[in-house]
Amino acid sequence: MRTVTINSAGMTMQDVIDVARHNARVEISEQALAGMAATREHIEKLANGETPVYGISTGFGALANRHIAIEDRVQLQKSLVRSHAAGMGEPVEREVVRALMLLRLKTLCSGRTGARPLVAQTMADILNAGITPYVHEYGSLGCSGDLAPLAHCAMVLMGEGRAFGPATDGTLGTERPVADLLAEAGITPVELREKEGLALINGTDGMLGMAILAIADLNHLVDYADKIAAMSVEGLMGTDQVFRPELHEPLRPHPGQAKSAANMFAALKGSEIVASHRVGDSKVQDAYSLRCAPQVTGGLRDTIDYATVVATRELAAAVDNPIVLENGEVTSNGNFHGAPVAYILDFLAIPATDLGSMSERRTDRMLDQNRSSGLPPFLAADAGVDSGLMIAQYTQAGLVSENKRLAAPASVDSIPSSAMQEDHVSMGWHAGRKLRKVVDNLRMILAVELTAAARAVELRAPHQPSPISAELIARLRKVVPGMGTDRFLAPELAAAAELLRS
User: Fold this and answer.
1) Comparing C-alpha atoms, which of 357, 393, 356, 367 is closest to residue 235?
2) 21 pairs with which residues across the strands?
C-alpha cells in the first residue's frame, strides 16, 4: 500500500486521489511536526496574554468582538465545533470525506494554523484507521471554509458526532459509535485548545477535494469520449479527413482540440468501414455532432487544464483565518473564500454537459433510419417487434437534460450569513456537489453512445472497424452481449458505464 508523506510543502493531486479512493496511508514528516510545534509556541504566548486575538481569545464571525476569558477558551473551541456541526441531509461519499480530511490535515501541517502536532497526528490516525466521519450534504456556503462538513470531521477527533467504520469497497461502511471506533483503532480523542477548533474547520478542503476527484474522472472520460465518437463516425459512415492534424493546431491552436482530433484520427486509422465509402460517397459533409467532436471535447480538455492549474495552486495554499505568519504574527485574512475553486467547479460542469449533449445527438442519429446511412430503426434486430435502443436514448436524453440544469453556475449566487458579517459567500461546496452529479451523468451518457456505436459498427460487416474500435468493442462484449432480440437493457447499460469507470 502506498504511503503519502505530508510536509510543509503540501502534496500532489495524485496524493489526494490515492488517499481518498485507494486508502493510501498517511504519515507526517518530522519537519512538519517540528514546524507545527514552533508555531504553537506563538499561539501559547498569545493565549496567555490579555490582548484579544481573533480565534484565540474572541468569539467567531459576528461575535468576534466578544473577549473570552482564559478559563473559558478550551470550552470556546469545543463549542465552536459542536455548534458548527450543523449539517443536514444524506451523508456524502467516503472519498469526498477522506479528501477533505486529508486537505485539512495538509494545511495543519503547513505550520500556519497554530494547531498542535497532536491534532494533526490524530487526524492522520483516523484516516489510516479507515474511519469516516458522517458529513452531511448541506451545511457549507463555501466561505469561511466548508464549515459544517469540516466541523463534523472535527467532532470525531473529539470523540463525538457520528462516523462509519472501515470499508474497502469505496462505500461508507457501517455506522457505529465514535467512541468504539476510536478505541478499537487505539486512538485517543483530542481535547481541543486555543485556535484549534477554528483551525480544523476554516478551509476550502471539501470543494477542493471534489475538484481534484472530478478532474481525475474527466481526464479519464475525455479519452474514452474521443474513441467512442470515432466509433460513432464509423457506424454512421462518416469521414476521418476532418480530423487531420493540418486542420487543427495550425489553423486553430487550441491544445485540447488538437489532442482530441489526433485521438480520433488515430482511432479511425485502419478502418475498413471508413475506407469503404471514400470514393462515391454522396455526402458532402458530416453532421456537426461528428465533424465538430474535437472542438467540443477539446474545449473540455482545455477547461480541465485550467482547473488543474487552479487546483494545484490551492494545494500549495495554507487556508485558515486567522493565519500565523513566519514571524509569529497572527492576522486575519480572506483566503478562506472559496471563489477560485467555486469558479472551476462551475466551469467544468459547462463543457462536460455540452459533451454529453453532443454524445446524445450522435446516438439519436444512429437510431434514426432516415439519418443513419442504412442502419435498422433503433438498431433493433426486428424493428417493430423489437424496440432496440429506443428507450436507452430516452434515458440518455433525460441525463442530458438534468446536466443542463446542473450546469447553471452556483458561484454567481450568494446568501449573506452570520448577521451580515459574512455578506458574500462562494457556494463552492454546492458547485462541487452538482459537478459530481454532472460527471456521473456524463459517464452514463457516454455508455449509451458506446452501446449504440458498437452495434452500429458491427452492422457494417463484413467491413471491419479500426483496431482501436475493435479493441474497445471486444472489451464491451465481455460485459454486454451484441445485437439480438430485445432483452433487459438496464444491466447492460450499467455494465457499459462501469467499463468507462475502469
Assistant:
1) 367
2) none
Cell triple for 281: 460517397
- The closest of 144, 155, 179 to 77, measured between CA atoms, is 155
> Poorest-confidence range of 75-84, 359-368, 379-388?
75-84
Instruction: Let me know if 306 is a catalytic residue.
Output: no
Report yes or no: 382 and 439 within 8 Å, Cβ to Cβ.
no
3-state secondary structure of 172: coil
CA-based radius of gyration for the chain: 26
Any idea where the domains of the chain sit in the sequence?
Answer: 3-202, 211-501
Number of Cβ within 10 Å of residue 396's Cβ equals 26
Using a cut of 0.90, tell me whether the model's pTM lies above it: yes
Q: Does the bond joining 52 to the residue before it have cis omega, within 30 degrees of 0? A: no
Q: How far apart are CA 55 and CA 59, in angstroms?
A: 7
Q: What is the pLDDT of residues 179-224, one digit of tens each?
A: 999 999 999 999 999 899 999 999 999 999 999 999 999 999 999 9
Measure the CA–CA gap between 351 and 296, rounded to whole angstroms: 7
Overall fold of domain 3-202: Fumarase C; Chain B, domain 1 (1.10.275)
The residue type of 430 is: H
Q: Among 54, 134, 288, 306, which one carries the catalytic annotation?
A: 54
* pLDDT, position 47: 81
Q: What is the CATH number of domain 211-501?
A: 1.20.200.10
Coil, strand or helix at 470: helix
**Upper half-sphere CA count for residue 18 (Cβ side, 13 Å):** 13
Helix, strand, coil abundance in the chain, percent, nearest 5: 55, 5, 35
